[in-house]
Fold this sequence. Notes:
Order of helices and strands: HHEHEEEEEEHEEEE
Distance between the termini: 99 Å
Helix content: 10-25%
Strand content: 35-45%
Shape: elongated
Largest sheet: 4 strands, mixed
Number of helices: 4
Number of strands: 11
Amino acid sequence: GDAGFSDFFRMFFSGAAAGAQAQAGTRGASGAVPKAGTAGRERPSRGELEAPTELSLEEAFHGTIRLVEVEGKRYEVQLPRGVDTGSRVRLSGKGPNGRDVVVAVRVHQHEVYQRRGADLERELPVTLREALLGAEVPVQTLKGRILLTIPSGTQAGRTFRLTGQGMPKLKDGGTGDLYVKVRVVLP
């Protein structure tokens, strides 16, 4: 009668009401005092499983799909454009026993580009003639090849900013810049 309805009620409503009843010493059918906020049920701890993965800078620029393995099971993970070392992609509840799988990203150093957040830096070798007289010099970016106009009298070490030629930004959807530092190559 009353005890059955009371247990039924406690099963559907938890939180402050169940906590107040537990604090007041209300006992369930078994005679035990339920823990506050659990309505007599204990939830198992849902620890997360980590799966490390490594990417090239080009893969981080374009986004990629990776297969990761956790406890003998494989997962296909979509890594978005602009991920960086330290980025974590969570697969909520997809792991064994409903645990979260967290893919920890590490992006390899690149031989040409240095990454500074969403911005990229690189050196551009130009001849002494191009620096003195000016020229249009091809620059390879992660988006493709563009022509950079080098004005006459350009000094070694001068840096040009190529707006929007850097890495995609994860949060606001923008794009970083590419900073090109002139290195004069002597004959």
